[in-house]
């Protein structure tokens, strides 16, 4: 297995938002990591797998207090959360942050029975090994697990994350997981949706998912005056695409 020259890639989306991702992670687990620059504080939305040091990789972006949020606690979204001083999560996801899954998450042969098949049935290719490179010499994917960490703040519906010159409201968007949240900036019409919705196969049959709650979340998202969605996976999209994805899901549901 080759050693990656660098583990994270970055893309500046606009004058305040930067996208980071892990190109050597299989698409099914390749989370979008969003950094939002504010006047008084910055925001980090999700933190990837935790395979390599995210805080070091984004050091050039870190010049003020950082509010790190997990939209939910699946392994691809909370892996590096422990590296940051402020760690926010919904109450229904807090225990999973404190005690992550205790199996080698990068090797699907170690996943719980039926987990791989369920995800593949919903539209993803799931390889035997979820990475195509190692972050450094001596890395052992057969022993890698998410690192447990204690949330420093629990956030729920209606809470506001104030960056000084912008503010994001917490929206509870269950369905994919019980405590999935989005972060909504009304002033710009920008939504960070986590895995509540993204432009790819949505997972509503995995453990912890709830199709009825997911359908209600879709109906709620349709009512938001969204201009732009920055999701947990796959490319960002506009309101028209949001409505198309919602309609497709509800028709299937």
Short summary of the structure?
The protein has 253 residues and is of the alpha/beta class. The chain has helices at residues 54-57, 75-78, 94-98, 115-121, 211-223, 239-252, and strands at 9-12, 17-21, 33-36, 42-45, 66-69, 86-89, 153-154, 160-162, 167-172, 181-185, 190-194, 228-231, 237-238. It has one domain (9-252): 4-Layer Sandwich (Metallo-beta-lactamase, Chain A).
List keywords for this structure.
Metallo-beta-lactamase, Chain A, 6 helices, 253 residues, alpha/beta, 13 strands, six-stranded mixed sheet
Any overview of this molecule?
This protein has 253 residues and is of the alpha/beta class. The protein has one domain (9-252): Metallo-beta-lactamase, Chain A. Helices cover 19% and strands 21% of the residues. The chain has helices spanning 54-57, 75-78, 94-98, 115-121, 211-223, 239-252; strands at 9-12, 17-21, 33-36, 42-45, 66-69, 86-89, 153-154, 160-162, 167-172, 181-185, 190-194, 228-231, 237-238. It has a 7-stranded mixed beta sheet, with no helix packed on it. It has a 6-stranded mixed beta sheet with strand order 8-9-10-11-12-13. The N and C termini lie far apart (41 Å). The mean pLDDT is 97.
